[in-house]
Amino acid sequence: MSLCTKTQLRRIREGSPKVGARQRARQRGTAMVEAVIALPIFVLLFAGLFHVEGLSSAKRAQTALVRRCAWAYAMNNCTEVPEGCGDVVSVGKSETMSHQQGSIRNGLKSGIDGLVGGATVKEAIGKVVISALLPAVEDAFGRRVNASSSTERETPMMFGGKNVTLSASYHLACNLKPTDPLELAGDVWEIFSP
Questions:
Q1: Do 97 and 192 touch, CB atoms closer than 8 A?
Q2: Taking Cα atoms as reference points, which of 75, 138, 76 lies closest to residue 104?
Q3: 51-65, 93-107, 166-180: which range is least confident on average?
Q4: Burial category of 148 from C-beta neighbours within 10 Å (exposed 0-12, middle 13-18, buried 19 and up)
Q5: What is the pTM of this model?
Q6: Shortest CA distance to 166 belongs to which of 65, 39, 19, 36?
Q7: Given CA atoms 127, 130, 132, 135 in this order, what sign does their dihedral have?
Q8: Model pLDDT for residues 125-147, shown as the tens digit of each residue
Q9: How far apart are CA 129 and CA 74, in angstroms?
């Protein structure tokens, strides 16, 4: 066991300037190493947050456009494409009036043929009514608007540099065309007229 001299004891009690300087230098070196390690990680985290926010924002804008176009198109009985929605909307299962007229005429013909062939009046009338109502029901509830759109966004090089495709779609039934009684009578006349 070694004994300390008076000078050494005084330095220990008062705190030697040489020991404090070394300790401060060591602490500064440690802080620098920690900063060198932590700074790139924080830069990547912040860049990733901004990139994800940008993708999320673009996806929300895409979805809003598709919904706006689908609702605007459906409100017009799926007849007029709203401005700015030409490449977004399309109509599924759209029947034409001539197709409906042909279906009704075929129903009338099959009802008359059924009566001639020995079917009951109830069966013949059922065929005629179904052939008259089915196209109208299919037109009312079978037509729908399909709205879809997609766009590409570039990923920053630190995340691979690839293009990301963002897409959105929305499906909605078409509204019926508003009609007044006179217009309805004219449509019925066109269907049943020879």
A1: no
A2: 138
A3: 93-107
A4: middle
A5: 0.54
A6: 65
A7: negative
A8: 777 777 777 766 666 666 778 88
A9: 28
Whole-angstrom CA distances from 14 to 4, 9, 34 are: 15, 9, 31
- Among residues 148, 44, 50, the alpha carbon closest in space to that of 91 is found at 148
| 187 confidence band (pLDDT: 50, 70, 90) | confident
pLDDT digits (tens, 9 = 90+) for 57-93: 999 999 999 999 999 888 887 888 888 888 888 866 5
Beta-sheet strands, E only, within the chain: 89-92, 144-154, 163-173
Confidence of residue 96 (pLDDT cuts 50, 70, 90): very low
| CB-based contact 166:58 (threshold 8 Å) | yes
* Nearest alpha carbon to residue 194 among 124, 113, 101: 101
Sheet with 89-92: list strands edge to edge: 89-92, 144-154, 163-173
**Torsions phi, psi of 147, nearest 5?**
-115, 130
Nearest alpha-carbon partner for 158 in 49, 73, 70: 49
In angstroms, what CA-CA distances link 42 with 28, 29, 31, 46, 94? 20, 20, 16, 6, 55
- Per DSSP, the chain holds a count of helices (H) and strands (E) of 5, 3
